[in-house]
Amino acid sequence: EDQVTQSPEALRLQEGESSSLNCSYTVSGLRGLFWYRQDPGKGPEFLFTLYSAGEEKEKERLKATLTKKESFLHITAPKPEDSATYLCAPDPGKSTFGDGTTLTVKP
Amino acid sequence: GAVVSQHPSWVICKSGTSVKIECRSLDFQATTMFWYRQFPKQSLMLMATSNEGSKATYEQGVEKDKFLINHASLTLSTLTVTSAHPEDSSFYICSARGFGDRVSSNQPQHFGDGTRLSIL
To answer: Does the distance separating the beta carbons of B112 and A97 come in below 8 Å?
Structure first.
């Protein structure tokens, strides 16, 4: 059975304090791993797609990386506006989402 | 690009009423649309997957007679909550996935902004 685990569940950072979020998965025949950002009361916003181990994608202060068993979302020098819940979804064909990491960045 | 519009964003109605939620892909053709339910501080729970012109596939435990899904075109899917009761109150989110250079199942889902349903 496909499983996805995100850690930590919640993360509090000071503005400018870099950190990483983890998405561990067991999926047979991975066809892509997706990262989303969700603000309260809104639908998730697509961030990245990673298709193969070793691949990296960057967008502003965010960088996503992928190995065979996990993906990391690195946040460099975060700002308060980066506060949100970050969701990963391996194998979107089955639409299995992790429970997310809620990031709070304090000024 | 890849905008999904969901309407209404908020609905309050009496118990026993049926409520229809629309999900439209505005600038792409959606081969597949998904309907999710999300409880406070929890992740997305997939309810059903629909492909244009065919019957929706419901996840285990989701009542297909209660949550009617229609995907009549490549840009529109609807979810109707029939005879809604207070326990149906939740945040419902749709998403759409379109064609792409890769196999369609490799394409990201694009989400609407959700519908907050409150049943009194």
So the answer is: no
CB-CB under 8 Å, B108 with A100: no
State the Cα–Cα distance between residues B84 and B120, nearest whole angstrom.
Answer: 9
The verdict on a CB contact (< 8 Å) between B6 and A92 is no
Please state, for a pLDDT cut of 70, what percent of chain A lies above it: 95
3-state secondary structure chain B: CCCEEEECCEEEECCCCCEEEEEEECCCCEEEEEEEEECCCCCEEEEEEEECCCCCEECCCCCCCCEEEEEEECCEEEEEECCCCHHHCEEEEEEEEECCCCCHHHCCCEECCCEEEEEC
Q: Enumerate the β-bridge partners of residue A11.
A: A103
Contacts of A84 in chain B (CB under 8 A): none
- The C-alpha atoms of residue B86 and residue B13 are separated, in whole angstroms, by 10
Q: Which residues in chain A have their CB less than 8 angstroms from residue B42's CB?
A: 99
Q: Do B105 and A93 touch (CB under 8 A)?
A: yes
How many residues are there in chain A?
Answer: 107
Q: Which residues of A touch B93 (CB under 8 A)?
A: 43-44
pLDDT digits (tens, 9 = 90+) for A61-87: 999 999 989 999 999 999 999 999 999
Q: Give every residue of chain B whose pLDDT is below 50, as ranges.
A: 101-102
